[in-house]
Amino acid sequence: xxxxxxxxxxxxxxxxxxxxxxxxxxxxxxxxxxxxxxxxxxxxxxxxxxxxxxxxxxxxxxxxxxxxxxxxxxxxxxxxxxxxxxxxxxxxxxxxxxxxxxxxxxxxxxxxxxxxxxxxxxxxxxxxxxxxxxxxxxxxxxxxxxxxxxxxxxxxxxxxxxxxxxxxxxxxxxxxxxxxxxxxxxxxxxxxxxxxxxxxxxxxx
Amino acid sequence: xxxxxxxxxxxxxxxxxxxxxxxxxxxxxxxxxxxxxxxxxxxxxxxxxxxxxxxxxxxxxxxxxxxxxxxxxxxxxxxxxxxxxxxxxxxxxxxxxxxxxxxxxxxxxxxxxxxxxxxxxxxxxxxxxxxxxxxxxxxxxxxxxxxxxxxxxxxxxxxxxxxxxxxxxxxxxxxxxxxxxxxxxxxxxxxxxxxxxxxxxxxxxxxxxxxxxxxxxxxxxxxxxxxxxxxxxxxxxxxxxxxxxxxxxxxxxxxxxxxxxxxxx
Amino acid sequence: xxxxxxxxxxxxxxxxxxxxxxxxxxxxxxxxxxxxxxxxxxxxxxxxxxxxxxxxxxxxxxxxxxxxxxxxxxxxxxxxxxxxxxxxxxxxxxxxxxxxxxxxxxxxxxxxxxxxxxxxxxxxxxxxxxxxxxxxxxxxxxxxxxxxxxxxxxxxxxxxxxxxxxxxxxxxxxxxxxxxxxxxxxxxxxxxxxxxxxxxxxxxxxxxxxxxxxxxxxxxxxxxxxxxxxxxxxxxxxxxxxxxxxxxxxxxxxxxxxxxxxxxxxxxxxxxxxxxxxxxxxxxxxxxxxxxxxxxxxxxxxxxxxxxxxxxxxxxxxxxxxxxxxxxxxxxxxxxxxxxxxxxxxxxxxxxxxxxxxxxxxxxxxxxxxxxxxxxxxxxxxxxxxxxxxxxxxxxxxxxxxxxxxxxxxxxxxxxxxxxxxxxxxxxxxxxxxxxxxxxxxxxxxxxxxxxxxxxxxxxxxxxxxxxxxxxxxxxxxxxxxxxxxxxxxxxxxxxxxx
Lengths: 205, 265, 499
Prior knowledge:
The structure holds 3 protein chains of 3 kinds. Chain A has helices spanning about 20-50, 65-75, 80-95, 100-120, 130-150, 155-190, 195-200. By secondary structure, chain A is mainly alpha-helical.
């Protein structure tokens, strides 16, 4: 089906198959639902942290960065992280996210780009755990820049620094480490059998 | 979660807003958001909000529906404002100070501006998106904006699986009760269920991909479109309205001296 | 009715064809030599693992490229390699839900022609034709989420048909459907073949559905190659017994009925579970049925039957204590032992030893990462020590032939294995009543036979069983009573149903 002899010019990272697109979309949509749920639930956890150390509430924002890293790790194609995070943002925007539909999507684009750039630096060839952590951190940094410029432009420096550091940590841990373990777990169930990420982790049958 | 199934089959209507091309709605929302996000001041946001309100009536949403769909925005606006009041950049007379909290003239002004801004950007976005049918949006993105059809339709296919998520979730919950683990550990159970849902969805997604390929999807052949998506006069009108509102809001703010560019200072 | 013979029927040939999926060491198909003439109708049989599905996917051109696996030899449709014969073959898959691509009926059927690049008018003309051919007389705007399983399959068939394929490939199209759905799809396929005269290759493990429609049967050998090939009656006569052994539902060799030693006495002791004036509902507003009165006795099986949508599953879940009744009561005082009589008020741990529920889709119930742990979940939830847990889990593993799979992840099991596992998990905690939702759904004859033998043993040991099912063979073989749900009330309540 995918022409094997035509389009012989080797592309960086490979060409997207239909199953890549659909699964990246599924992961994006599922993550979008989680984002929407987290939109409603994060306040009770974030506000006390914020009261204690303003800016540190970003420690729990890593949940919104999972889509990009997860998509990249599963699909392993160029643009996967960007695509998945954007779809997730679109879904949570459609469900009624608060920051105005378009800006939610824009945030998703920026965050996805943060993870994407890290995967690109490794030429879409290295998918090990520490790369995942770096990608999460990258997404976190991107989120911090986006939020501080657009939403917290009126805030003071201590807030900004705390926010940025918390975002990066949250991204690295929740999105980076969390996604990596999630992919391992998924691979064991055998649903990723059409992907390299599934075949690497699963046992040979 | 009726809003969940709601996005897949938005209630149809005969008002003009339902016949506007979804891409036009997207562009209109974009124009408004960008214009208003460039500055935090109560004049631009307030003027925009004022001009938007009469148009909400035009949108043809039932008041009850409008309220429920915009509720997240209506809650978020004051909450963001409170954050800014407490931690915003200080300037002018100071009213209270405690640890990192510093309430000042400046922070209060910024808070009001933030409140209006979230409303002015959030409300029209919700109203526009509530009336969008995902299939029509996909048609628009592919035909009008010329985004690659493989990605647009693959994305739409993935989105369609959402409808099945909800039923699956209920079954997963009941199953856990039957297995004896539903008495405690809600968070753990939630994570377990979310994982199971992800597994089931990826499996279903793989089958969907095969089904799409079986119908010829993804081949190098140039595909045609059964449902035409074009920009018409009413789409231009919507975008024009968005541009006008943005222009008036920005002009009012600049002329009254309250313009506060976010990239400065 | 206009016979549209403009569709040229396709010929198929496999020349030493083989396929190996990436990441596997064994070849799914090896050295296959096969010829199918244009317009022929073929039924493809074989035990699982023989590569039937792989062959169909290969013909449909969806196996993929280098990423997905390795090909040997050639697979040709009209002399052109199958992977490049776009639009010549139409493939229909097993799962109706996974083939719905768009939200409206018309759009979904138009998807295929769109991918072929046809002009707009031609697309909609074909859509109308195709929908009519499969008997889906619904408006084009009708939402696809509101379709039944059988309707979804017919819609998928219409979508494939609108591409005017010369080769129709059906991969277990009726395995996930209820009897009405099966009949609908069968009739639709017959009509389509009459109109287009296309070549047909169908894989199914229920022979009786397609027997009258096909003229040739090919049996694939798991070791590679063809085991038998010839006219329907001849092959079934020769290979019938072997096929039945391998799990195919051959009408001449039906699976053995289980033997039961005890039957519950009609006047019997107090029932384990009974209801009175019960009304069931999924959500509080939509009551599905009311005034239901039934009873489950020790050592007896109650079968709940009725058409799709009548509320059978909801009734099963209500009896299992998972859903509260809309009104009326479910009385499990014989099981309660100190707890309130209504099971939905019990805590989930208390349900474990009293009423076990097995869901229609086994995957909904999987919690753990290995089969062994999955079985242990219930025992551990009861707070049993490690020794006791092992004592309960190991015999069940043996009894249900799951021992070699003890370390495997439950999601990687085959359909029959998952089904056995889900039944086993409910039994670890030794409930006195077992509620089963469609236990034999989509199962091959071998699994069917084993499952029924196992259920017969349970009945002999004194458990009460409620089986929600539309499998008439199951009802005939094991049920002591049948409760038919039809249109809101019990339509009949036959006692002493004998097989």
